[in-house]
């Protein structure tokens, strides 16, 4: 049978079999799985109108598209799935409580305090901690371990609440972006003298996107000019309607400074949890949960605060946290007391880990030290690989059309930041009015005035959103973060241009632009003739590096003699290699092209997608 070919390259052809690939895989990874030549996959992509190099990490959609073209099914395995599978090989399940209903016991809610800067988040966390230190408790020094637990009485019943002790939504979203759910309820702090501010809305949107119920703490009611009623009115516009106005959000007027109505706030948290959440966990199984904070302590080594989500963690247990592991040497609670065990929703500081895990890493207790070590090592190896394949593209405007066609998303999530609220609103309402057919919805997850922040990027990561910056840029490390995480951030200074591009993308018209990037140059020193391969150039690499399978052109006396050549063979001494660096010698074969002379220069390049202005 004659295999189909594109431009002379044999097309690999499957029988509809399924190929499993990690998120962020390259064409080379794909080729390996189906025993094909990576160059042939590059050719297929080119035929589909996409320039992709063999080793570059590509989007899920590109892999799907490619697979479809070659009659394979591709199954993209997310990092979370990969981890689940890794744990399965050890017969461990993460994230589910073991046993049936009868094993589930009520657990305290876990709360994060969010809101605009200076509205009193830190002060509130302090006030809660102080008013609720259990009376008569042997006085360890209260220490900051990243979370604490307090007691309160609701309807005559003693109840507990766990607070994540990092105010603001950065930690919250960072964890969520990594797939970890740490928070059950959000307290949104709004200063009554200041009202709803940009970060109030940002926080609110983060909580909503995560599906976390909100309790509003209207703070600073002791200050002159405080207007708690106005705050209620303002928040109505954002879908938070106070109970007293017929809504289902509890608002509590407080003063963090004077310690006013803190108990009512705690009660509201408990009541909201009871009304809208079913917070139960199995306390009997091996402990599981997430890391909240960690650092390297000079005296004690790696210390990490973990939040137990199910099961009971005990001193002596063997645990894995992210890619750290170890036997729990000691545990301290939020008051600095040594504890022997910690049940669901309890935060504890753990000593005895090999290294420092990351915030949001999951932890689990396993039976054997060996298992813990193996899981940790496998995770560390995977992390290294993932870093190699760094630029994982999430949803971007260019591939939106294929994403939509593949049915991978039905809505385009946007985050809009601009220099003035009027402009942001104008942009938003124009975008929402775009007529883009029935299949897709445009959803604005968050809008605000100011630079594109790390928190915006984190929200985009967690929700596969595209970020639009109108007359603003990314602040601080946000640009790097977007780049690293493959979040598409678009800058505009003309509203119409933004609207046109989004519309074009939704209609599948926006094609990526490419630019040529020079990779390396090689000077021809010698010519070898091979009966099998034709002419081989003996070269010295003058700049950059020369890689196999990249595009090349041949220059003679500064003039281009031939274009569109391919480095089809690359050798150092007797060995086939994939690349040769500046200053080294080697042999280059340009396929069927043989017109090579001494002193010619072979310049290699690749086509890279050009960021749009
Ligand atoms: P954060 O940025 O939200 O963490 O705000 P802080 O907790 O640091 O509070 C900002 C400022 O507001 C500090 O000077 C606090 O002392 C003050 N503050 C916080 N809560 C209250 C309050 O209820 N009443 C008054 N008068 N001041 C408060």
Automatic annotation (TrEMBL):
Q: What is its main location?
A: cytoplasm
Keyword S-adenosyl-L-methionine listed: no
User: Where found in the cell?
Assistant: Cytoplasm
The Gene Ontology CC terms held by the record are: cytosol
Pfam families per record: EF-G_D2, GTP_EFTU, IF-2, IF2_N
Q: Which UniProt keywords apply?
A: Cytoplasm, GTP-binding, Initiation factor, Nucleotide-binding, Protein biosynthesis
Q: Which residues bind GTP?
A: 115-122, 165-169, 219-222
State one molecular function term (GO): GTPase activity
Functional note: One of the essential components for the initiation of protein synthesis. Protects formylmethionyl-tRNA from spontaneous hydrolysis and promotes its binding to the 30S ribosomal subunits. Also involved in the hydrolysis of GTP during the formation of the 70S ribosomal complex.
Family label: Belongs to the TRAFAC class translation factor GTPase superfamily. Classic translation factor GTPase family. IF-2 subfamily.
Annotated protein name in UniProt: Translation initiation factor IF-2
User: Taxonomic lineage per UniProt?
Assistant: Bacteria, Bacillati, Actinomycetota, Actinomycetes, Kitasatosporales
Report the gene name: infB
